[in-house]
Every structure is written in C-alpha cells, then in structure tokens.
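Field reference: "sequence" (input) and "structure" (output). Example, F-box protein 36a:
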Amino acid sequence: MASLLGEQLFEISRQGPPPPKDFFQLVNTKNEVILRSWRISLQLNCRGAPPKELRTSHLEFLHHKSVLCHFSHVEQIGTVFGQRILEYTISLCQGKFDYLERLPDNLMLCIMSYLKLKETTLLAQVSHRFRKLCNSEKFWEHTVRNRCAGFTSDMEGIANAMGWRKTFFTFFNTSGRKEQHLAQID
C-alpha cells in the first residue's frame, strides 16, 4: 500500500476570506506541510511581490497546533480552508492515510461494480472524487452493460449519443418495470 503514496499527499488552493482576498495553497508532502500565499492588492507597493512560503515538518506542525495560541499557519489553514481540511492535514501529519482515496480510478470503478446501486449513492456522498466517479460515464456504461437485462447492442449508439447515465434513467429505471430490469442492482 505504501506504493500508493506519492511524494505529495494532498494539495488544495483557495482564495482567502475577505477583505484582503489573498490566494493560498496548502501542500502536504510525506515530510512537511507547505503553506504558500500570494498577496492580491491594487496597491503599487504590493505588485510583483513574491509569494510567501511557510514550510514545516509534520512534527513541528503538530507541535504548533497544540502550543501556539496566537495567529499561526495552523490557524491560517483553518481560517482559509476550513476545519475539515485542517483536521485532514493533522491526520496526514499523524500518518493516518486514506488509501481508498488514493486508488486509481479504473480500480475504484472495478470495486464499485460490486456495489448495489443504492450503495453507490451513499458512496457519492463521501467525497468529491467519489461523487465524480459515481456520476462518470464509465461507471454508468458499466452499469447499463452489465446490470440492465434489456440492454442490447443496438442501444449502444443511443447510449453513446445521449450519455450512459441518461440512458439508464430513461430506459431502465422506469416505474413499474424497475424490478424487471434491475434485479441484480437492488
């Protein structure tokens, strides 16, 4: 599983809260947390200013989180990116990795093929990545091809033209016939 971890564990960018509207980037690598900020201002003295960069080892980051009471980069991460991202960053610094999030899309789609459709709707609520996968054309193509009894090769052109998800909900998820076509799904 360690091979799933690249040098960079997590990255997010976002504009900071008003009034300054500065831009921030948070990068969590295997060894350190990097917070970069770009000053956004119309003032002449701020134009062309280089970005600020704070680099902290995981141990220092965890120590600062519990020791510093004044404004710090840890608090700045919470303010700019929210409490959930701060907690996730802390988890990564503690060595708690979410390997499922790191699996390649094709492997995740293969795993998802064993889930019931109702379970994939729950999975889609877990993260942005899982929502994207659950709504992807690849997922719906696999669902239609392998789970819908009424699908024929003649329908492939229609599915390619109108989209596999729309094909599923138009032809195979109709009231009254749902049980007939989706016996394996439910």
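Residues 2-100 form one domain.
Residues 66-71, 176-184 have pLDDT under 50 and may be disordered.
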